[in-house]
Amino acid sequence: MKHARIRFQGQVHHAVVTAADSLTLADGRVVAADQVEWLPPATGSMFALGLNYADHAAELAFKPPTEPLAFIKSPGTYTGHNQVTWRPDNVAYMHYECELVAVIGKTARNVKRADALDYLAGYTVCNDYAIRDYLENYYRPNLRVKNRDATTPVGPWIVDVADVPDPSNLKLRTWVNGELRQEGSTADMIFDIPYLIEYLSSFMTLQPGDMIATGTPEGLSDVVPGDEVVVEVEGVGRLVNRIVSEAEFFASLALNNPAHATKEHA
Amino acid sequence: MSRALNDLAGGTLFGVALNYQGLLRNHLESFTQPPYQKPPVKPVLFIKTPNTRNADGQPVVYPKGVERLQPGPALGVVIGKSASRVSLENAMQHVAGYTIVNEFSLPEDSYYRPAVKAKCRDGFCPLGPELVPADQVGDPHALSLKLFVNGELVQENSTANFVRSIPQLIVELSEFMTLHAGDVLITGTPEGRVDVRPGDRVEVDISGLGRLSNAIVAE
Lengths: 266, 219
Prior knowledge:
The structure holds 2 protein chains of 2 kinds. By secondary structure, chain A is mainly beta. Chain A has helices at residues 54-59, 143-146, 193-201, 246-256, 258-261; strands at 2-8, 11-19, 22-25, 30-32, 37-39, 46-50, 69-73, 78-79, 83-87, 94-95, 98-104, 120-127, 130-131, 152-159, 171-176, 179-185, 211-213, 228-233, 237-245. Classes of the chains: A mainly beta, B mainly beta.
């Protein structure tokens, strides 16, 4: 089953995706998929993995890590399916990253690999965009690269664990304007999901709604305003996003949210 | 945690590293070497995850198998209304008030990679004892900050020594991410972090904000 969080007629709902083009709300109403605003399906912390595919690590000229390289994202950077992400003005390189995401379903502390999947609510997809220009060698990758407003699309939904029999053998693909740019397989992950749950929960408590974004394979390229970027994880979901300019993004915020209309542009 | 603090400071905990001039100065030479190559250009930020939240009077667990644990006395700035791309002149209007933060960490040998394992352990971020409204704090850039271990003063500095002021931080952070009401900026720990052991009582005192007290207990 696919579990979504959506906004419909101004209200946030939990919904189940019951057909390709419709959802069923918790109160039984059936709504058309094109009538809803897709929200990130989970809103906890995101533990995102850097360099977790051997080929991508090589692409960035790093040795593969011997211990997971995890960085944290906070909820302000998430956005939903079919939303927009802004490319800052005057940057040279903004790239997508197609990733399989494990969503935590129950409190996890000192979990062993063998039991790890019992702690999952399911799987989703994210596009872990990065602005390469802003990389600095402090807590790399830093928040200015990875924790920007609306720069981590997540969704469209969470798929039950039982519906993904082998998460270690899923194709990941990214299309830009319909052209296939990135292709890989979760089979090439360095640290798999059970390992990552064991690792993180060995020193901290993972909470329901927390997410583990498991890294991206090779095949990165620059994206610019106007581009439609689709990331897909086989059997989990296909997440659509469109790049807009900085000016367009902040102008639309001001239109949709009066609080932003009075905000200054420093 | 006091009721008001709990209600008004429940957002994301954003930490700022290297925000004391003395601390930054101590590292400047190494920051011209690999892997850093050059000193930081923008604020060096990290996130303390929600599981790190802790309160005045509550124990801080010294994890099993860990060799060293260090308190991180810091001024916490609580955001009162959303800040996106604010100007320097208006930045302080987004501050609801201040509290004390003890940003516990395992020692940081390196600032190169995100410090999740060092900083995101359960209970590693006591906040309190209360939220003091901004209008009751005269000049937040002239506060004395003291760390006591078992009653002995072991670390002392002043918020006058920030690398970046509070409004400057709000401007630079809100340029790329909205600071939401309830978010907390942990404005940095000064140089001279000390080690603590199970059984120690650790207290942070900031002038006008009270005293945040925690006992270290073995796991």
